[in-house]
Design brief:
The structure holds two protein chains of two kinds.
Chain A: E1 2-11, E2 14-24, E3 29-33, H1 40-47, E4 55-60, E5 63-64, H2 70-76, E6 78-80, H3 93-101, H4 108-121, H5 137-150, E7 155-159, H6 167-182, E8 186-190, H7 194-200, E9 203-208, E10 211-216, H8 218-222, H9 225-232, H10 236-247
Parallel strand pairs in A: 3-8, 3-9, 6-7, 7-8
Antiparallel strand pairs in A: 1-2, 1-4, 4-5, 9-10
Helix pairs in contact in A: 3-4, 3-5, 4-5
Chain B: H1 2-25, H2 29-54, H3 63-80, H4 84-108, H5 113-133, E1 143-144, H6 159-182, H7 184-194, H8 196-201, H9 206-232, E2 234-235, H10 237-241, H11 243-256, H12 263-281, H13 287-302, H14 306-323
Antiparallel strand pairs in B: 1-2
Classes of the chains: A alpha/beta, B mainly alpha.
Amino acid sequence: MLEITGLSKSFGGLAAVSNVGLTVEEGKIISLIGPNGAGKTTLFAMVAGFLKPDSGTVMFEDQNITGMKPHRICELGMVRTFQVTQPFAKLTTLENIMVGAYCRTSNRELAEANARRIAKQVGMKASLDQAADSLTVAGRKRLELARALATQPRLLLLDEVMAGLNPIEIDEIVDVIKKIRDTGVTVFLIEHVMKAVMNLSDYAYVLNDGVRIADGTPTEIANNPDVIEAYLGHGAAERMRVEGSANA
Amino acid sequence: MKSLKSRNGLLCLAGLVLALLIPQIIDNNFYIDVLTLVLFSAFLGQSWNILGGYAGQFSFGGVVFFGTGAYASSILFRSFGIDPWIGIFGAIAAGAAMGAFIGFISFRYGLKGSYFALITLAFAEFFRIIANSVEFTGGGVGIFIDYNPSLTQLQFDNPAGYYYLALLMTVISLLIAWWLERSRFGASLVAIRENEEAAEALGVNAFRCKMYAICIAGAMGGAAGTFYTQKFLYLDPPIAYGIGTSVEMLLVTIVGGLGTIFGPLVGAFVLHSINEVARHYLEAPGLSMIVYGLILIGIVGFLPNGLIGLFRRRQKKMAGGDDA
């Protein structure tokens, strides 16, 4: 569904993403993980058209979308959310979601009906008439998700929708994402909350310093020495192994 | 909610009927003239409101469309003998073309906020100087329009004629704003105002929407230009491209309520009333301006959402009271 090859981007000599390739299969939930500054959000920005890559291609459903404008990519059926939520602050939740719904229809009644349906799907029915800037963090994250869903995507890019949520809220949103996947939408997500990654994803890619260092099922990733070192520092994998056998 | 809506509709209808009857009720040319100017301000303000209030692109040179339209119909009449009632469409086209030109240059290069404000200001000044130095605009001497009252000239032998023309234009501008509030295009503009990047992520073509917005603003400004010259029969560069008009456009809108249908109308009415009353009752020269300024500071300082915002807050409170 999504095929990225040799994607690179540098900012003033600093390589944020270098030569990354990966594939997102239709109907799955795929995760992209890695420590802070690994280049995950930069990669998303390039895929969704917000940044022009220095080199490499992005193919979406066999169409080359490299360097295409975000609104065109959205019309094609791929939409992203933002890590730092970007609500239309002065508008209500319903109006926010309707902006997304207008992507598929110019009919106001239809857009409103779709927005209401989606609000229900992500559990925002109660705050429909609330101004977006009065929502809680969890509410804003849901709103990001709802607006994106309202554009009726086939591929949904979620950038840390669980950051800043408490465990109960995380469980709720994990549920929502699973249900979204069950409706046939493919999900590609950046996440730091490992419990959610393990719980949700069918497959995961690991980025470190702009380079892809590993991929596999969540369990494989969790036991991959390179990944452990990337997160916990040089020599960590070895220490863990030694400590593990000492404890046993 | 439904009853509130139909009540507002009735209020609008009543307002329109009252506005239509005013020349019959008030038999005083001075008041009719003042009201005509209020409507004219409201119309110009709405032109600014579409770009500044709805789309969030604050222009400081809104006058540039007005001046372009004013020159367009005047020159069409003087040099080509095209009557103003057709010329006004030329003015609308010229205003829209000016909008497309300035919009393309500014939005293509992603100018926003104060940079956009400055470039529009610069364009207004640029055209003022151009109009001053070329021949076909009449240069610094300006253009005198012959007074020849008839509908084809958009000139009238009594103030009520101008009043009705201004009323018609204002009603059209209100309908445009009303359509914006209910359409996808309007929702896109508001989304761009609130957060352009997020809007683009959701499939809004921000560049195209902003281009349409500035063209509509330009077209309206152009129409206002024709109205002005046919009423006041004279046009020169400081009138056509003076910064005072730009400021008035944004002032009536901000005082009334940014991004609201009736904001510019309410703002124009209140500001003109304050101005007239202060001028009438305060004898000392300049004192009226000081009072006007103080009231302005009060409104802008204490009512961030303008007078309409105040009204809405009260309405919401009342609606909330009903629920309880």
